[in-house]
Amino acid sequence: MKVLGLGDNVIDRYTHTGIGYPGGNALNFSVYARLLSAKAAYLGVFGDDSAAEHIRRVLEAREIDISHCRVVPGENGYASLTVEQGERRFIDSNAGGIRQTTPMDFVLNDIPWLRQFSLIHTSAYSYADALLPGLGALPGSLSYDFSDDFDAAKIGPLCRWLDYGFFSCAERSMEETRGILETAWQAGCRLPVATRGAEGALLFNGSIWMSEPPEIITPVDTLGAGDAFITAFLLAQVKGNTLPQSLRQGALFAAEICLTDGAFGEGRPY
């Protein structure tokens, strides 16, 4: 199985320790997929600073293909955050750094390369929304993480291209969460899923609602838990697992990642 994380990469700067860790939804997907034994690639834009160089070295050491990425002059993306009793809390960011002004059109330059992937995952922070029609026309499945600050008006236009859509709904009521998933499914998303923090995950397949409680642990750091859930769920689906099995795999891997500092370690002073 070959999978691709497309879009955002950052350094997560922990203000309470002065340590920065590689991260970003699309990049985390690629790393987590590799941890789960898939052949993984990452496609995105790096700055030319030391933070970006560190991320690239980490990906190369983990045998993740970054051959189609671009390096451009400027500051790489970063986010500032802290951890309080195991729960990560974001403070600010540079909104992706150089990625804000670097067009992502080059992503579709090598269609034969893209066609080799069973699954492509991207996100709301990847500046790749305009690419979804092209990505959706590829033979592999297409997944998108809307995160928690999505614009409800964009659900329909984006979901028409998606096989999987993920929504972070920990701060929303169950009624609102169900409405979001129904809207996504009606717009064309085959399997919309909501993660609800301590309440676990909720899935709608057009006729049946399924839920999965979280694995109960004492977290070291919850950064990356949602991305870990998404990755393990998606890989289980591509392998042909049932929906309940896939939801369970997502919950177990999310709990495992919560026992690691940063999204997957590899920290250094910033």
List keywords for this structure.
PfkB_dom, 5-stranded mixed beta sheet, globular, UDP-N-acetylmuramoyl-L-alanine:D-glutamate ligase
What can you see in these coordinates?
- There is one protein chain.
- With 270 residues, this protein is an alpha/beta fold.
- The chain has one domain: UDP-N-acetylmuramoyl-L-alanine:D-glutamate ligase (3-Layer(aba) Sandwich), CATH 3.40.1190.20.
- 30% of the residues lie in helices and 25% in strands.
- It contains eight helices and 15 strands.
- The chain has an eight-stranded mixed β-sheet, with helices on both faces. Strands 8-7-2-3-15 form a five-stranded mixed β-sheet.
- β13 and β14 form a beta hairpin.
- α1 crosses α7 and α7 packs antiparallel against α8.
- The radius of gyration is 17 Å and the shape is globular.
- The N and C termini lie far apart (35 Å).
- GO terms for molecular function: kinase activity.
- Keywords: Kinase, Transferase.
- Pfam families: PfkB (PF00294).
- This is Sugar kinase, ribokinase.
Topology summary:
Layout (H helix, E strand, L loop, with lengths): L1 E5 L3 E5 L4 E5 L1 H11 L3 E5 L1 E2 L3 H12 L8 E2 L6 E7 L2 E7 L17 H4 L4 E5 L8 H5 L4 E5 L9 H5 L4 E5 L5 H14 L3 E5 L5 E4 L4 E4 L12 H14 L4 H15 L10 E2 L1
Parallel strand pairs: 1-4, 1-9, 2-7, 5-6, 9-10, 10-11, 11-12
Antiparallel strand pairs: 2-3, 3-15, 7-8, 12-13, 13-14
